[in-house]
Amino acid sequence: MKEIQAVKSSLNAVFAIKDLGQLHFSLGLEIAKTKKGIHVCQRKYALEILADAGMAGAKPVSTPMVKKNEKLFEQVVVHDVSAYRRIIGRLLYLVNTRPDISFIVQCLSQFVQAPTKQHHQAAQGILRYIKSSPAQGIFDPKDTDIQIKAFSDSDWASCILTRRSITGFCIFLGESLISWKTKKQNTVSRSSFEAEYRALAATCCEVQWVTFLLEDLDISVHHININCFKVP
User: Considering the entire predicted model, what is its pTM?
Assistant: First the structure.
């Protein structure tokens, strides 16, 4: 508490600040603290997205994307560009607490320049999935081990237009999910093994960054475990 008060005093000497007590809501993030841990979600923001898109009364679905749809990559007539960009832009911020929609959002974000009707329908499918559980978020348990666990995977040549692979990883500090990403790889991988290797390399870089960050906070990591899914 002495260090916290020292930081507050230093900030107050330069800026006019006000202590509002325990954090409950900030920048669309809703923080709920319990004896077991902290739950972070964006329920209000998610409901605002649904209302803005006219999907508040839509029928919810259980998955954000039923299957990989090749029609998403077809060159068809551009459809409702502004509405599509608004949905994708807001979903990109929602991914901060919803890693379950990370893959499909990065997939649809490739088409913001010239979206088609298929893209718009796929975006609405994400909204219907969010409708099923708008309060879903991330839970960080209070009692957990200080060890890093990382999981890496790739989707080989999944982009029909460029034949680039998709890198996906998630990193846990104990039982708390602290970092995740789904991104198209910069170069074309000539084999599924190469795609997995690139995904693993990206995961190791992120783990190294997390380790440096924890060291800056004077937290020593006891164990690091990196898992890579086997190539089929």
Answer: 0.81
